[in-house]
Structure formats: C-alpha cells, structure tokens
Specification:
- The structure is a single chain.
- This protein has 363 residues and is α+β, with helices and mostly antiparallel strands.
- Helices cover 47% and strands 16% of the residues.
- The chain contains eleven helices and nine strands.
- A hairpin with a 2-residue loop joins strand 4 and strand 5.
- The relative contact order is 0.14.
Amino acid sequence: MFDLELTEEQQLVRDTVASFAQNEIRPIARDSDESGTIPQGVIDQGFELGLIHSALPEAQGGYGEERSAVTGAIVAEELAWGDASIAMHLLAPRLVAYPVADGGTKGQREQVLPRFTKGFHAATAAVVEPRFDFDTSRFETAAKRENGSYVLNGHKCFVPLAEDSDLILVLAQEGETQAGFLVERGAAGLTVLEREKNMGFKPLSTNEITLENVKVSADARLGGDDGFDVARMVNLGRVGLAGLAVGLARGAFDFACEYAKERTAFGVPIAQKQAIAFILADMAIEVDASRLLTWEAAAKLDKGQDASREAYRAKRYAANAALKIADNAVQVLGGHGYVRDFPVELWFRNARGFASFDGTTIV
C-alpha cells in the first residue's frame, strides 16, 4: 500500500513545475519540434527550478533536499505535459548526477557532483544497445580489467545529449557482473556518431556511440570495487519514463477534451456524442491507471524495496497507454488531428518513442 495524498512539499513542487510547463515549455514545444532545438533560456530556467541539484548533497554544492522517486515521477509528469522531449533534455543530467550521488565513491562524488550545481551541465548515460534482443539485465558492451585499468568495447544508441556531454556513464558487462564506468568526453576510442533522426522527440539530441578499446582508470568504475546497484538505476529510469508517458498522455487527453467541448457538429458539441464521450472516458481512465502504477513503483523504490516488477509494469503500461491516448486524441480531432496546426500529431509521434527509450531518464 502507498499514500495517494501528496505532502505539502510535493504539492508545492507539482504546482511550481506545472506553472513552468504551462508558461514556458508548452508555448515553445511546436517551434522546438520544427527546429530540433530548445531555447537556452528555457534550459536555464529549468536549472533554476532545481531539477538536478536540489537533491544533491550540500557538501558538493547541492541543496541537500531529500530525494523521492514519487516526487521525481510527479516532476516528470508535469514537465512532459508541457513537452516530453524538452522534459527529457532538462532531466538528462540526472543520469550521471544521481547514480554518482547514490553509489559513487567519496572521490567520485567530490569530483563529479559540483559540475551540476552552477548551471545546466550536459551529462548522460549510455544504456540502450542497437540489437533486437537488447536486455538491461545483460549488456553486450564489455568491460575487461587489464593491468589496473579497464578496457571498454561496445555500441550504444539513444544516448541523450551525447554531443554536448563531457561525461558519459557507460553501463557494461564485466564478466557476470553489471557495472558502470565514468568516461570523459575525448577519451581515445570513444566516438559519438551523428545525431539520430528520430520520428519523434525531435528537440532532444540523441546519438549512437561506439567504444573501441576505450581505456579508463580503475577509479572510473562507479562505486569502485564495490560497484553500484545497476538494477535499481534501471528501475528508477523506468519510473521516470512512466512519469513522462503519463504527462504526455494527460496533455493529449486535456487537449482533446477541450476541443470536443468547443467543436460542434449538427448544432451540439461533439463531446455530447456518445462515441466521442466514450473515447474521452477511456482516455481519462488510462491516464489515472498509468499514474497509479507509476506511483506504486516509485513508492516501493522510496522504501528501498525491490520494485523490478512494478517498475517494468508501470513503464510498459504507461508507454502503451500514452500511444493509445495520443492516437485517440488524433481521432477526436478528426482531420485536424493529422495536421501540424494542432499538437496532437506531435504527441502521437513522441508517444511512439517510449517503446524504444530505456535508460534515458531517472528519478
């Protein structure tokens, strides 16, 4: 069981991020999709909200606030209501900051975390691999210990902000153990390929990267000899993706609902037509169901429990629901849903991406 009542602090966070999404993100979402870029001003404003450094330790320049997966899911939902790709861009530095804060050695925390406290700092994680049978429980990217160092070989895709990041957390297989390695930009053998041309998430820069005999010191292994909990990172990432999917779905539902109330046919709003009303009702149910599954997984993670089943279920259900809801929004708008004058086609394209993105965000 988990508490569905938000704390006063969570409600404040929700209201603050929702206002930012409505006033700053939503108005630029279409132009960002068309241009493939995000205005620097919005990125800077996102940093000022404390999306990254508020939960980092005071000793490394953060605010030292208690971190909660439930609160993180709420933040992801509200940002994605504005635009999912801009949300993912703003949250991408967490992919390095949070694992280092959670499982890094004292030296790693002191070296890495201060980078995220003085302004938006691009950093990312390389998780997904370009193969049909990719499984987060076993990577093909390999790490081999050689003479006190590690040599990395592999191929990753859907790496957000790879072009601009000076630090990449590479998840790899070290024998039978999963491990993470902090690889600085410019390391010999690390190649960031050209930007991927995705159907959706166009403002979000993602790339494939290759690692060919990339040599890193033993100190680059996250957590040192003790390592860190890769499975927990994956679960926190799935909850983050589920939260983003809920936000996109809710945005599509809200827009379709308002459109149906204003659009008339045969003298009455189409929302009063039974077929449309049933579609909208199903959309509302799916939004709430996705959110509940997401919060359930997040609450279990906050208790320090294994939430592998819940996190996977939440991510898969929310991703499928987002696609279904976005598709229904296109249907409610009829011909208007297919043209770029309205945002639902954008949301439909973005919703399709959740099936492919894993390890691209974290709460």
